[in-house]
From TrEMBL:
SUPFAM superfamilies attached to this UniProt entry: AlbA-like (SSF82704)
Pfam family, one: Alba
Gene3D superfamilies: Alba-like domain (3.30.110.20)
Protein name, as recorded: DNA/RNA-binding protein Alba-like domain-containing protein
Region (Disordered): 104-151
Compositionally biased region (Basic and acidic residues): 129-139
InterPro entries per UniProt: Alba-like_dom_sf (IPR036882), DNA/RNA-bd_Alba-like (IPR002775), UCP030333_Alba (IPR014560)
Organism: Eucalyptus globulus (Tasmanian blue gum)
DNA/RNA-binding protein Alba-like domain location: 21-83
Length: 151
């Protein structure tokens, strides 16, 4: 009987103790880049960060994750979506709210900007395919006019 009590106590401690690398994002409390910089700090300290949000704040979490990924700071590890039953304060009834959790892990690249797509060292020439196509189509009516003159 004491084992069941210990298990219950241990599991309730896990629920009450917040994760050290979790950020619960709100649309109204802090600006976007507060969360971006906080997530960068958590990634440096813990090698991963978990971003979570409810309802309208979901777009903010997705934006934060995309900023971190595009800057080469983090890579996406896991995305979880669900709905959570909450009591509506105004009406006093249960409502469902969308929830998202995005886990990002430290990128191998660090915080270097993404590499350019074209890293070739060949000189760029003025004759691109688009220009050749434009030049060829521009010559076609003139060639047609020259053919007409010959007839």
């Amino acid at each position: 009987m004491t084992m069941a009590v210990e298990t219950l106590v241990a599991s309730s401690e896990n629920v009450l103790a917040p994760k050290k690398n979790r950020i619960q994002v709100s649309n109204t409390k802090k600006p976007l880049f507060f969360y971006v910089n906080l997530a960068k700090r958590y990634i440096q300290q813990h090698n991963e960060v978990e971003l979570s949000a409810l309802g309208m704040a979901i777009t903010t979490v997705v934006t934060i994750a995309e900023i971190l990924k595009n800057n080469g700071v983090a890579t996406e590890k896991k995305v979880l979506t669900s709905s959570v039953g909450m009591k509506d304060e105004n009406r006093g009834r249960m409502i469902q709210k969308a929830k998202i959790e995005i886990v990002l892990e430290k990128s191998d690249k660090g915080e270097s900007p993404p590499e350019a797509a074209d890293t070739s060292t060949e000189p760029i020439t003025a004759d691109t395919d688009a220009e050749k196509a434009t030049t060829d189509t521009a010559k076609e009516p003139a060639a047609a006019a020259a053919d007409d003159e010959k007839k």
